[in-house]
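Colleagues,

For the teaching module next term, I've prepared a clean inverse folding example: a structure given as C-alpha cells, and then the sequence designed for it. I'd like students to try predicting residues themselves before seeing the answer, so please don't circulate the second half yet.
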C-alpha cells in the first residue's frame, strides 16, 4: 500500500493500547492506523463512533454489514471491503452474500429486502443523493422506523470512512486473507450502467 500520507510511528500509552488491540483483533497493526496516527484525536473519535455503531441493535447486523460493503464497493474502498468481509466471517454472517456485494445487481443470492438495502446504500452514497420515496417507503414498511434510522446512520458513517480511506490512499491490508477466505467478487456493472441498462 502506498498511502498519500506516510504512516507515523504509533507511540505513547494510547498508541500502545491501539497497537495491542489491533494485534489481538487482526494479528498485526494495520498500516492505516499509522496514517491516522498523525491526528490521534481524529482516530480516537472515528474508532469510538465505530464501536458505538456496533452496539446498536434495531437493524439486523447482516443488513448493516452488507450496506457498508455496498458503499465501499461503490466508492472503491478496498480497505473497507476487506475489513467488512473479515468481520462478516468473524460474526458468522453469510459469506456467500458478503462475497457477492460488489456485483449484487447480477447476483441471485440476495432477498428482496437485502436488494432494497443495497440499493438504498448506493442511492445514499451518490451526489446528489438518489433515494426515492418509493424505496424509503418499502424499507420503512419492512424494517420499521428505528431500524431505518439506524441503517441510514450506518450508511452515513460508511461514507465517512470509505471516502476518507480512498482520499488518503488507504487500501486493503489482507484481513480476509488471514482467515483463508476466498476473494471478493469482481465488481459487475457500475450503478450508472445498471440504471441506464
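(Answer key — instructors only)
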Amino acid at each position: 500500500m502506498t498511502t498519500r500520507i506516510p504512516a507515523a510511528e504509533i507511540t505513547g500509552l494510547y498508541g500502545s493500547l491501539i497497537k495491542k488491540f489491533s494485534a489481538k483483533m487482526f494479528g498485526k497493526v494495520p498500516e492505516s492506523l499509522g496514517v491516522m496516527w498523525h491526528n490521534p484525536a481524529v482516530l480516537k473519535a472515528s474508532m469510538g463512533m465505530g464501536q458505538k455503531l456496533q452496539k446498536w441493535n434495531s437493524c439486523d447486523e447482516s443488513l448493516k454489514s452488507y450496506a457498508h460493503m455496498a458503499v465501499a464497493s461503490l466508492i472503491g474502498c478496498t480497505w473497507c471491503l476487506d475489513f467488512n468481509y473479515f468481520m462478516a466471517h468473524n460474526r458468522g454472517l453469510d459469506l456467500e452474500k458478503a462475497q457477492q456485494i460488489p456485483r449484487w445487481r447480477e447476483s441471485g443470492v440476495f432477498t428482496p429486502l437485502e436488494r432494497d438495502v443495497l440499493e438504498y446504500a448506493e442511492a445514499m452514497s451518490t451526489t446528489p443523493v438518489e433515494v426515492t420515496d418509493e424505496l424509503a417507503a418499502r424499507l420503512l414498511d419492512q424494517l420499521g422506523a428505528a431500524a431505518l434510522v439506524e441503517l441510514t446512520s450506518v450508511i452515513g458513517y460508511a461514507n465517512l470512512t470509505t471516502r476518507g480511506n480512498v482520499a488518503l490512499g488507504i487500501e486493503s491490508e489482507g484481513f480476509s486473507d488471514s482467515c483463508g477466505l476466498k476473494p471478493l467478487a469482481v465488481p459487475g456493472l457500475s450503478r450508472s450502467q445498471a440504471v441506464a441498462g
